[in-house]
Amino acid sequence: MSVGSVAVVVTEDIGVSSWELYELSIPCTVFGTPQPDLADPWYELRLCGTGRPSGPLADTGLALRTRYGLDDLAGADTVIVPSVPDACVDDGAPLPRGLVSALRRAHDAGARMVSLCTGAFALAEAGLLDGRRATAHWLHAAQLAERHPKVRVDDSVLYVDDGDVLTSAGLTAGLDLCLHLVRRDLGAHIANQLARRMVVPAHRPGGQAQFVDLSVPAADDDGLAPVLEWARTHLDRPLTVDDLARRAAMSPRTFYRRLHAATGTTPLQWLLNQRLGRAQGLLETTDLPVDRIGELTGLGTAGNLRHHFLKHVGVTPRDYRRAFPQRVTDLESDATLIGRRGER
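^ GlxA family transcriptional regulator, sequence as received from the core. Prediction below:
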């Protein structure tokens, strides 16, 4: 049976960064390499460029020339936008000329529309994500939601399948989505065999929440910095809002207001994020048992740690530990210091 054609958008007029090159290579590898023993014919891949290179190239100094152009998107069965230039995301620069209208024409012609990482900004600009649940790299999810309020952005998942429109988180999550497309088109067995050949899991547990840095950025309020740093080094204690407010020489109400203004979150949520972030670090860098990590981070029992991990990270502590190779960092010495302090 024929699985159809896949058109991949290449923003050749702006130049391709190293990250964009990685995301571009994913659909090229999955859909552009024939697998005659798995399915014959395989997908027909088209690389559709947005125009000739012009102006300064990306830092990599790399530009691509393609055989097909944006007009060729409309004839494809599946259209994939791997990414859009960083300037379009960070600085609000316009998307490559003609891209939005080409995406709309392809969708109107019945193409299955797919974005990887920041490619969601192009689908959103075309109005194809309005009223839909969608995702993007967690670093850019807030920008996507702010710029396109009609999109229901979910930054906790690796990808979202909304039928004829699919979106993925960043980088390797694009591979998860492309394998999912193969699974939809050709079945689980072929998708699993392809994943084996690529030396990747056919399906990863959890979502991108397990890769999010839960530590809130440093507060702009300099008056809070000392108490927040103190709290980070005493997470094993049963800290309360009153404790932190008292240490900051503020009333609980004032402390709450200033912390929320500086970090965008409540004191209790800030504490939970710090504890989960520390637990992630200890799972990555030590072989401490889960119950001990629960004690060191102030999350309590192993059961309580598992509960919060499943709710906020999306996987169990054991699965999280398996996903990250153990490495020695300063967190290991931190764990020793915390343990010694707790034993006194």
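The radius of gyration is 23 Å.
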